[in-house]
Specification:
The protein is mostly helical and 296 residues long. It folds into two domains: 14-46, no CATH class; 85-295, Up-down Bundle (Rhomboid-like fold). The protein has twelve helices and four strands. The strands form two sheets. Strands 1-2 form a two-stranded antiparallel ribbon.
């Protein structure tokens, strides 16, 4: 392409600054924008007009969260554009496995392969294979359609608020580490039991939303009541692993505290270190405490 041909093609220049060459497109309207007009998004960048339109569509709680959580230009963006992709992915994967569990003959095999119990962590004490990955795979199998539906409904409702606020990576870390915390609590408090379900992760999301909501000044009374009712429900209904609820809620609250206190860009390294330390602490806890119980 010659210089004259290049210059005559207006698609090669910013639509807001016709004298500025650029090859970057707004991910929403697909118009060319220069660096001055670019606002980072989860995927690519968006132009000022699309950003303005997106801000208009925010709910009052989202606007308040963006102002209070972000706290100025020196912090990481908390309210982000785009769909809650991680939530949708977790919903799709867990729902698919849950539906496969309903297939006669195949379902019980899937459940047996992914459920969790302390017996799979201590082969030197109990005559079972060492399969530590069950600490996480347990989140993707459920004890029936109702169990699956209730957890997925909760995940959908919580994820739509938390994922845009935290960002995809932090939200996924919150979900997985909370689920790990639920499994660790089951291993410690009920070493002889078996469990299935994403309840530990779900309670972690609820506890995190409660902590973050308080941090940004939102009214979290309703959420606190729901969390309390769901937690108490596990004590009165048989077959519910209240230990997973307790462990997930505690770990989710700890993660939220870490995130709310390491929001600034310069604190990102500390945020990663603290989250990694929490994971290591859970691994150490499950490695040493249950064997003492089992040997007692």
């Amino acid at each position: 392409m010659t210089s004259s041909e290049f210059a005559s093609n207006r698609d090669n220049f910013c639509y807001r600054h016709p004298d500025r060459q650029s090859f970057v497109l707004c991910q929403r309207c697909l118009r060319t924008i220069c660096p001055e007009c670019q606002t980072p998004a989860p995927v690519g960048v968006i132009c000022p007009e699309c950003m303005k339109s997106e801000r208009k569509s925010e709910t009052p709680s989202q606007r308040k969260a963006r102002r209070r959580w972000r706290g100025g230009s020196g912090t990481l963006t908390a309210v982000r554009s785009g769909k809650p992709i991680v939530t949708y992915t977790l919903l799709a994967l867990t729902s698919f496995i849950g539906l496969v569990q309903l297939i006669p003959g195949l379902g019980p095999q899937i459940t047996e392969a992914l459920l969790f119990g302390a017996r799979y962590l201590y082969p030197s004490i109990l005559p079972f294979p060492f399969e530590p990955w069950r600490l996480l795979t347990v989140m993707f199998v459920h004890g029936g359609f109702i169990h699956l539906a209730l957890n997925m409904l909760a995940l959908w409702m919580l994820g739509q608020n938390l994922e845009p606020m935290l960002g995809r990576a932090r939200y996924l870390a919150l979900y997985l580490i909370s689920g790990l915390g639920g499994s660790v609590a089951v291993a410690i408090l009920d070493p002889g039991g078996l469990t299935v379900g994403a309840s530990g992760a779900i309670f972690g999301l609820m506890a995190a939303l409660l902590i973050i909501g308080r941090h940004i000044g939102a009214n979290v009374t309703g959420l606190l009541v729901i969390l309390g009712i769901n937690f108490a429900f596990g004590f009165f209904v048989g077959g519910i692993a209240w230990q997973a609820h307790l462990g997930g809620a505690i770990v989710g609250a700890l993660i939220a505290l870490i995130l709310t206190r390491t929001r600034r860009r310069e604190q990102r390294t500390w945020q990663i270190i603290l989250l990694a330390t929490l994971v290591v602490a859970l691994v150490v806890l499950v490695a040493f405490v249950p064997p003492l119980i089992l040997l007692a």
